[in-house]
Structures are given as structure tokens and as C-alpha cells.
Amino acid sequence: MKNIKDYNLEELKEELEQIGEKKYRAEQIFKWLYIDKVKEFDEMTNLSLELRNKLKENYSMCNYKILRKQEASDGTKKYLFDVLDGNAIESVLMQYHHGKTICVSSQIGCKMGCKFCASTGIQFVRNLTAGEIVEQIIAVEQDINDKISNVVFMGIGEPFDNYDNVMRAIRIINHQKGLNIGARHISISTSGLVPRIYDFANEELQCTLSISLHSSNNEKRSSMMPVNNRYPIEELMQACKDYIAKTNKRISFEYALAKDNNDNLDDAKELVHLLKGMLCHVNLIPINKIENGSYTKSTNENIIKFRDYLNEKGIVATIRRELGSDIDAACGQLRRKNLKNQEE
Ligand code: SAH
What is the pLDDT of residues 149-182, one digit of tens each? Predict the structure, then answer.
């Protein structure tokens, strides 16, 4: 059965027309789904019984069950959700002074194979649908009984490898009659699928684009991220420059610092050379060591030196606060969980 949350408002209008209903019903249904967050069609009391029955016959509602919830000492919460087909996914809620941010997953597993990431080495299962992405936000908002203010596509999966569903989810998240989270409060992170960067520039969305760069040197980047063999740094940077020219928006470059790998002054110099003059921001992430991973975290001293060097040279760089590391909820620590074997 089709999940009613897989449609953005325009698509739902068309869908309803096809089953002989008036388009304006879509807005009513949207309000029930995303503002009232009801769990049953029968709760949609301004719809006729006949329509509710028709909806029940044709659509599912995909309410997630929380399989497990862990809370870190800093208040970060990690959720394991049953996606109702024998698989499970993780989402993380982080509390900042300026509000609550959810880190959502876009796929069950990931194909990118980044060497430092815990989602690697696990079999890719499938893309999440738009409704399955959006449901992560709804389920967490209901659990905490509060509004989420920011969404980052930085959980499991490569969002640009599931482009259409991710764009559809963003439209639902962003729509005033949907979850109503401003586009400027939505970030999407990619390992660098160049053709999709061009597509994204044409979406006319005010979301922030983050690029997982991690090295400005092709040899080193390829050793960390196989995607660099397909789209090397020159092509990636050209796409970023074209994106900035088209959208006039700042790009956020993510750079995870691994000890004795990409964290010395020469690396910082190379990075300055690469980014000089670009409308951008660098987000330094102390790398989180994963099980059996060969990369370890840089020393605090090196991380600060790296940041200071970039700032001195006019590249705005900040160090990302580490949240949730004691429950394996920090960057790169999420893994696809299988219901049958939750400790996988
Ligand atoms: N596939 C997307 C989004 C998911 S990862 C991407 O690659 O951008 C979100 C961010 O966490 C990326 O910048 C990723 O490179 C980073 N990351 C992955 N593993 C990490 C680790 N072990 N330590 C620190 N950051 C990590």
C-alpha cells in the first residue's frame, strides 16, 4: 500500500483528484498529518466517513515504532526506528542553545564506502521513501512533545544518491502547511556527487549545501573516499563554484580531522589554496574512531592550530562541537541496524 506521507502537497492534490476527490482535501489531510500529527485516518474528523474509509483502503500511514532510545550525557538522543519492513534506521536529536536539530537518515545502508564512516562495510539495502524520511522528524517531535527547528541530512546514507525522495521530503518538511521548517534551517550533506550538485543548484531551495571534503589532495581524498575516483577534486570544486555563482549561497565544507593523515599544516595550506576567495565556511570535525577503523582523532592542539591557520588566511572555520559520542551518536557513528540482529 502507498504511504500517504510519500507525497508532497502538489502530488497529493493530483493523487486525490485521481480517486475522485476535491483537491482542497489535500490541504486538510496535510494539516492532520503534519500539524496535528494524527496516527489514524479516523482522527481526520473534518473528512467524511466515506473519504476516511477510502483513504484507509488505499493508503498506509507509516507510523514508526521506537525500537530503542538512548540518551547521552549532553542530552543528545539516538532513536532506532522500525521502518516496518524488517529493517531499522537511526536518527539523532541534538539540543543546541538555538533549538533542536535532528540528523536524519536518507537510505538503509550506504554505497559510498568512505573509509572512516561506520555506515560503510554494511550492505546497502534500499532508499528511504520521502515519507520514511519525514516520519523520523514526526516521530521524534511526538516523543519529545516539542518542535524541531533544524534538520540535517547527515545520518545514514548519501542523500544525493536518493535525490528525488530527498527533494520530495524537503518540500514536505519546508512547506508552510507541512512541517513548516524554514529552508535555511535545513542542511543537506553530500560526499560529492557532482551531477546532483548541479541539479540541486536548480531547485531554488534556500537550504544549506554541505560538502564532505576531508582533504584537498586527490590521492589522499581517494584513499578516504572512493567517490573521489569518480568525481575528483577539480570537478567537485568546479561544481561548487558553479553552485555558488548560480545560487549566491555559501557552501559549508566538512573536514574531519584524522591524526597524522589530513591534519598537519601542509594540509591546511593546501586547503587554503583550494578555497581561497570562495563564498564558504569550513566545519572542522574531530574524526570519531569507528570499530576496526584506522583513522583516529587529531589532538586538540592540532585541531585548534588547523582552525587558527585557516582563520588567519581568511577562511572562516569553526570546530564542530561533539555531541552524543558516548552513545555512538556522533558523526559517522551511525550504522544500519537490522531488526533481527540489533547489535550488528
Ligand atoms: N553521505 C553524506 C552524509 C552523511 S555523513 C556525506 O558524506 O556527506 C555526515 C558527515 O559526517 C559527513 O561529512 C561525513 O564525512 C562525516 N563523517 C562520517 N564518518 C565520520 C567519522 N567517523 N568522524 C567524523 N565525521 C564523520
Answer: 999 999 999 999 999 999 999 999 999 999 999 9
Residue 268 dihedral angles phi and psi, to the nearest 5°: -65, -40
Based on the residue annotation, tell me whether 331 is a catalytic residue of this protein.
yes
Ligand 1 cavity residues, CB under 6 Å: 112, 114, 116-117, 154, 158, 189-191, 212, 254, 256, 285, 287-288, 290, 331-332
**CATH number for the segment(s) 65-343:** 3.20.20.70
The residue extents of the domains of the chain are 2-60, 65-343
pLDDT in tens, 212-244: 999 999 999 999 999 999 999 999 999 999 999
CA 254 to chain centre: 14
Q: What is the CATH number of domain 2-60?
A: 1.10.150.530
Model pTM greater than 0.85? yes
d(CA 165, CA 161): 10
Atom of ligand 1 nearest to the CA of 156: 4
